[in-house]
Design goal:
By secondary structure, the protein is mainly α. The chain has helices spanning 22-38, 42-55, 58-74; strands at residues 2-5, 16-19. The chain is globular and about 35 Å long.
Amino acid sequence: MKTMTCKQLGGACDKEFSANTFEEIAELSKQHGMQMHQKQDVEHLAAMNEMQNLMKDPDQMNQWFESKRQEFEDLPED
């Protein structure tokens, strides 16, 4: 199991997520993002806007996603 924070995954806070795979941790982050969107959390909304801008360029989005995957893979086990 490995742990990353919301900020490490492109978010706005220090909430920690723990998972066995990058796909699992990405899903936890996505769920957290949806909760913060429903609460209209200003900092998270700003982070989401940045992500939306990144998504406009598929190559740039893939590079970002792969860099986060590599960051996860490089983490020590908890």
